Amino acid sequence: MIPKEVAKIIEALDEKKAVNIQLLDMRDIVSYTDYVLICTATSTTHSGALMDHVEESVKEEIKPIYRNNTKDKTWLILDYGDIIVHVFAESARLYYDLERLWGDAKRLNWGKS
Asked: String of b and e for 91-112 (b: at least 16 CB within 10 Å)?
């Protein structure tokens, strides 16, 4: 069962057309977070819109403890403690390849593939 906050974040990403959303269960892998969400944005404008929409969608339930705002917007992070959201430009996602880095993490099905 996916926690409701995670489900709301996925819904927000999906509503704004994030590409290739992946949900990783990190509970048996690391101690600093429970879930990692990774997705791709199609432009820098899209990256910012995804981040803003996620924050707006869950602001009543949780607040981020960290949000980076790099100028080039190739890798944006929203850290909610138990949930970390990574929004990548396609080139940055391929370069950093977090799915391979956390290859031991269980991939959770959130409803779309």
From this structure: ebbeeeebeeebeebeeeebee
